[in-house]
Amino acid sequence: MTVFVGADYRGFERKKSLLPFLTEKGYSVSDKGAYEYTEGDDFNDPAVAVAKEVRENPGSFGILICDSAHGVTAQANRFKGIRAAHCSSAESAKLAREHDDANVLCLSAHFLSDGEIQEIATTFLGTDFLNLERRVRRINRLDEREDYD
After folding, report:
1. Residue tagged active-site, from 70, 99, 106, 110
2. Any catalytic annotation for residue 106?
3. Does pTM surpass 0.70?
4. Considering 66, 86, 87, 106, which one is annotated as catalytic?
5. Residue 99 among the catalytic residues
6. Which end of the chain is more exposed for a tag (fewer CB within 10 A), N or C?
């Protein structure tokens, strides 16, 4: 399984800690930036890079890290087929996978330690989607294109 990982400057150090951890766990890991610490860089670039890779590589997953995780979650979810979930615990990661077939995990560098991030990522990547009709129906509706007044 390939895991695409990205972070802005606020998540840069957490990403540097997560990459070898995932590799040691046996995952094929691809770093999508930022590649160096640049104070004040934008979360958008790594979020776009990870979302595009996950969309173009069925069966892969993404992990994004920024200060609060809100920005990367919003950016990644703008892509059809991406179901990015901001998770703050292993239990929320488990539910994101089981119930929503989330394919991008978004984590807060501000509120989570390296150990917590590793635990949440391990749970997320190790949990299967509960392929029930109602869940599939709801997920399919996420990509409907309609204008709302």
Report:
1. 99
2. no
3. yes
4. 66
5. yes
6. C
